[in-house]
Amino acid sequence: MLWLGSFAVWSFIGLLATLSVRELYRTSGFHEDFSKTAAMEFSQMLPFVPLTPLVFMLAGRYPIHRRNWLRRSLLYLVGGLVFTAGHIAMRGFTPYGVWDTKARDWRSAVWDYQQDRFKIQLPLFRKMFVNSTFDDITSTYIPILLVAYVVSYYSQLKERENLTARLEAQLVKSNLQALKSQLQPHFLFNTMHSISGLMFKDVRAADKMMTRLSELLRMSLDDAVEQITTLNRELEFVNGYLEIEKMRFGERLTVLTDIPGDTLDAQVPHLLLQPFVENAVRHGVAKMASHGQIEICSRREGENLYIKVTDNGPGFESPNGSRPKSGLGIGTSQERLRTLYGRSQKLEFATPLGGGTQVTICIPFRQKAEKE
Fold first, then answer.
1. Which of 248, 317, 242, 333 is nearest to 280 (CA)?
2. In whole angstroms, what is the distance from residue 181 CA to residue 191 CA?
3. Which of 42, 147, 153, 200 is least enclosed by beta carbons within 10 angstroms?
């Protein structure tokens, strides 16, 4: 791309120079053939095409710093002389290498017109070098160096930005994995506690609960690396957990679901619902003598997905009138939502008209096919 860019830029400059000289000739009343004018200007500009990438390479390989500016300045000065030598060497092979004051016309520095044969004329090259050094270095070589430094600076800046973005993404991923790893043992501990409550009351039910728990752990391990799953998959996990709790509470626990088909493939964080459903069981159904009910529903509104978990328990208010604090599962879930969606998510707790607790989760609606 650098070589192609160099060719395109210098060809464009050669064309502009040709048009400028033609306009100068026209206003001066001097008539010159367009092809000759173009050949003269392009023989001056095109030798810069292979030299420009070399200057970029020099600037990139030997950048100037505070400690080496003197040595590098001398190096760049030598580079400027080499740049001029390369320019006049390539230009000298063209028919427009040097101006012949006697013939008042351009001529090549490698062709002897008197003897009509190929001959490298070193005096002409020395003359070209002396006449071109200042202009080549100040008007071409130094500007190319400055452009090379600007391009290098922005390339390094972009690279640092990309590196920072990758590091931030890795940090977010690590943070999410850590938060998720907190949920898994928390869920396991509470479920094992429920099983232990039945161990001496109903051994058969406790055994079934252990079997179902092993299936849930297998599902959890299958999705151990994934942060995002589908709502359908998440509901499978939650239903497995609720089956365990139904063995414990029996007819005291009723579960209602209202999940439209267009939301089943929506992307949700893995282990999103389980802490809220568990909270509804522990702080809602468990505190009721009978007819405990948990309702899970979802809906899509525009670009957002809404999920609600509602129970008919005693609600937020404790006997002394204070609001209970969020446990580890709820706090971790809030942090995961903030990390994954930022301001695009909402988590609200409310008391329905009939009492109890309602948790509403709002996240951007994304389907499985949109997963990055």
1. 242
2. 16
3. 200
Cβ neighbors of 22 (< 8 A, separation 6 or more) are 32, 34, 37
Maximum average pLDDT range among 92-106, 161-175, 300-314: 300-314
For 234, the enclosing helix (H) or strand (E) is helix 231-249
Phi and psi (nearest 5°) for 215? -65, -40
How many of the other CB atoms lie within 10 Å of CB of 59? 22
pLDDT band at 322 (very low <50, low <70, confident <90, very high): very low
Mean pLDDT computed over 23-34: 79
- Residue pair 355/293 in contact (Cβ under 8 Å)? The answer is no
Distances (CA, A) of 141 to 10, 14, 137, 311: 13, 17, 5, 76
- Say whether 349 sits in a helix, a strand or coil: strand
Q: In angstroms, rounded to a whole number, what is the distance separating the alpha carbons of residues 293 and 2? A: 69
pLDDT tops 60 at residue 178: no
Q: Measured in whole angstroms, how far is the alpha carbon of residue 185 from the centre of its chain?
A: 33
| Least confident stretch, 91-105, 271-285, 295-309 | 91-105
CATH fold for the domain made of 199-370: Heat Shock Protein 90 (3.30.565)
pTM equals: 0.52
3-state SS, 22-70, equals HHHHHHHCCCCCHHHHHHHHHHHHCCHHHHHHHHHHHHHHCCCCCCCHH
158 burial type by CB count under 10 A (0-12 exposed, 13-18 middle, 19+ buried): exposed
In this predicted structure, which of 109-113, 138-142, 269-273, 333-337 has the lowest mean pLDDT? 109-113
Residue 325 DSSP class: P
Residues of each domain in the chain carrying CATH 3.30.565.10: 199-370
